[in-house]
Amino acid sequence: MKHAKRLTAVLLAVLMLLSLSVSALAEEAPAPDYTTGTPWPDIDLEGVVTEDTAAELKDNFALYVNKDRILKLEIPEGYSFAGTIMDLSLQNAEDIRNMFLGDAPEEHDARLAYNLFRLMMDWDSRNALGVAPLKEQTDAVESIDSLDALNAYFLEVPAEDQLAGLWSSGSEVSLDDASKMTLMTGECGLLLGDSAEYEALTAYGAIKKEAFSELAEKMLVKLGYSKDQALQKIDNCFAWESMLAPVIYTTEEQGGADYLARINNHMSHEELTEAEGGVPILEELAKLGYPAADDYLVTNPDFLVRLNEAYTEENLPLIRDYMIVHGVIGVAGSLDRECYEWSNDCGNAISGSSGILDDETAFSSSVAGMLAWPVARLYTETYLKLEDKDRIAEMIEQVLDAYHGILTEADFLSEETKARAVEKLDAIEPRVLFPDSWEKYDRAELNFDGPEAGGTLTEALKAIARYSLEKEVKEYSEPVDKEEWAMTPQIVNCFYNPQDNSISIMGAFAQGALYRSDMSDEELYGKLGIVIGHEISHAFDRSGAQFDKDGNMSMWWTEEDYAKFQERNDRLADYYNAMHPWEGQDFYGSIMTGEACADMAGVKVMLKLAAEKEDFDYDTFFRSYAEVWLTKEPLQMAYIRINDNHPMGYLRINTTLQQYDKFLDFYGITEGDGMYLAPENRVAIW
Ligand SMILES: [Zn+2]
Asked: Most buried among 180, 267, 283, 666, using CB within 10 Å?
C-alpha cells in the first residue's frame, strides 16, 4: 500500500516474526548439507533432526529439550511453520473463527466486522465480478500517456482507487518530538523486499521472484493481456525497481546502528519543493488533506534524487508496469476464487507452506487484521479475563523492579548514565492484555454495506482504506495521544514502542503454553516472565537506547558510555556472524543485536527474581524457556528468518542460556561441552 507506515514498522520491536505472506526454484547448485551448521546445525529446519541425531544436554540444550517434539511435529496445512508459537496462533485462529459463526451482532462495530467477514465469504458475488474491479484500475493506469497524465493520476484519482505508488508518504510520530506528528516521504516498495537482491540475487530472492512473476503473469492474462505482453510488463516492473534499488536501504542497512540517524533528515517546504522536482509529493499530500508544513521528514534523500532522474516521459512504460504489476499482486486475494487461489499459491511458494486454509479461518483472521479494533473488543469480551490482566500486571511490576539491579550493576556505565537509564525504566508504561476502556477505538464513522444490502468486498475494502486515511489526516493536526494502544489484544505477539516507552503483552499471547493461571512460578518465569523481561530490555537495546523516557530521539548517554555500549553490540553481532545455520550460509549479526540482547536480558532478570525464591526448580525454568522457541519450518522460512532481526528459535535458546553461570553450573556444563562459553567470550549486553 502506498501509505504504508514504514517508519513504525522499523521502530516497533516485536517479540518474534509472525506475519508472512510465496515452489522452490530448482537451484543450479547441489543442495547444501543442512546438518553442517556451526556451532549447532539449524535444528528448526525440517529434516535436519532424525531419530539418530545426538541430543546431549551439555552440547545442545535446545535439541535435548525439544527433540521428541521436533520429530513428531507436523507443519499444519496453510501455515509455514510449527511449534509452540504456532500452537498459540492456531488456537487464536480458531477462537477468532468461532466469533464469526453466530448470528449478526447488533452493535455497530461488531456488525462491521461481521459484514466484512460475510462479504469475503460471498463467493457468488466475488466470482460474478471477477477481475472487473481491477480492470477499471489497470485501464486507468494504461491510459497514462504523458508525465502530465501521470501527475494527474496521483492528484485526481482517489487514493483507494490507485494501484500502487512510486513513493511512500503520510504522517508519522516525529522522531525528535514524540508529542507531535510529522509529514514524511520515503522509498517505494520492492517486490523482492531487500534492495540488496537487485545487486546479487540470493536463492531466496529467486524463489520470491519466480512466485511473484507467476502470480502476476496469471493475473495479467486473466485481465486480457497476451502472455508476451504479461512477461514484458513483469520485466518492465523489475527494470524500474532495479533503477531505484541501488539507493534504497538494504535489510542490513536497516538493522544498522546508524539507521535511525540516517533516516532522520529534515527538509523545509521550500527545500522539499526543490528536491521533489517534477514528482508531485507535496501536491499529493495536499490532495489528501494535509496542510503545508514547515518541516518534513525525508527518510531517504538519495531516493528522491534517483526518483526525480527516473521520472521521465521515456520511462513511462516502466512506471506504468511497476504500478500495474504491484497492483495485480496486491489485490489478487480479494477478487474471485481463481485469483484468490493463485494468490494463496504465491504465498505458499514464498513461505514454504502448502494447502489452503478453510474459508472461515482465513477470512476471520483477515477481518481481525483489517478491522482490528472492532474485532479486539469482541475478542476481549469473549476470551480475556480481568483477573489474568491484574496478575500479569503485578508480575510486570516485579520484573520492572528487578531491572533496577540490572541497570545499576552494569559496570561499563557511569553513574550519570545509570541514573538516566533508571529514569527511563521507571517511565515505562505496561500495556497488559487489553485496554481499560474502548472509547478511543470505536469505528462509528466507518460504514459499508453487507451482502444483503448489495455491498461488495471491493467497495468495503475501499471504504476501510478511505476511512483509515481520513483518520490519519485528521490526527495529524492533533497532539499525539500517547495513551492510545497501537496493537490489538488478538495479536499473538508482544511489543516495545520506543516512541511512547511502552511495553505491550497482548491478550492472545498470554495463552496456552505461554501463560495459564495455574502455572508454577518456575514455568511462568521461564515463559511469559522472560518475554516480559525481553520487552523491557528493548528500551535499552541498540535502537531503543536512542530514545529518551518521553519517546524522543535524543542522546541521554555520556559519549564514553555510548561508545562502550556500541562496542558491546558489535561484539554481539560478531558472535552471530561467526555462526552458520549450515555450511556456506551466513547470518547478518548486525541486524540481530536488539533481539538477541533482549532474550539475554530477559533470562537475566528472571534469574534475579528466581534467586529470591526458596527451592526454585531451575530445571523446570530452563526447560520451560527452551519449549517456547520449539520450531519446525521449511527452507523458505529459514531464509525468511535469516533476513529477520530475531535469531532462529534454536539460537534463541542456546546462545541465550550459555551466557549465564547459573545455567552452566546447574547442569555442570564445562569447557569442551558444546553449550560452554568461557566468561571472556560472553556477549550479553546487560
Ligand atoms: Zn523483541
From this structure: 267
